[in-house]
Specification:
By secondary structure, the protein is mainly alpha-helical. The longest helix is centred in the N-terminal third of the chain and has 19 residues.
């Protein structure tokens, strides 16, 4: 829940402040720039790691989107 609230506050602050200063929100949409930055990040990750680490990373990525394995009630007695 806090991740959602924090993300919302951040996005509203950045984009709201930009719009209030007279900036055009359409200027922030740069798909080619996103492609270049993401591609450079993935390329650097591939260059900096061995095949075993790369495979392990892509295997673990789906677990980032799952819920917590334990809840507060099961860890606090």
């Amino acid at each position: 829940m806090l991740i959602f609230v924090g993300t919302l506050v951040t996005l509203l602050s950045v984009f709201g402040g930009y719009a209030l200063e007279g900036g055009h929100l359409g200027a922030l949409v740069q798909p080619v720039e996103i492609l270049m930055i993401a591609g450079a990040g993935v390329g650097a990750f591939i260059l900096g790691n061995n095949l075993k680490t790369i495979k392990a990373t892509f295997f673990v990525i789906p677990t980032l989107f799952k819920g917590a394995k334990y809840d507060k009630g099961s860890t606090w007695s």
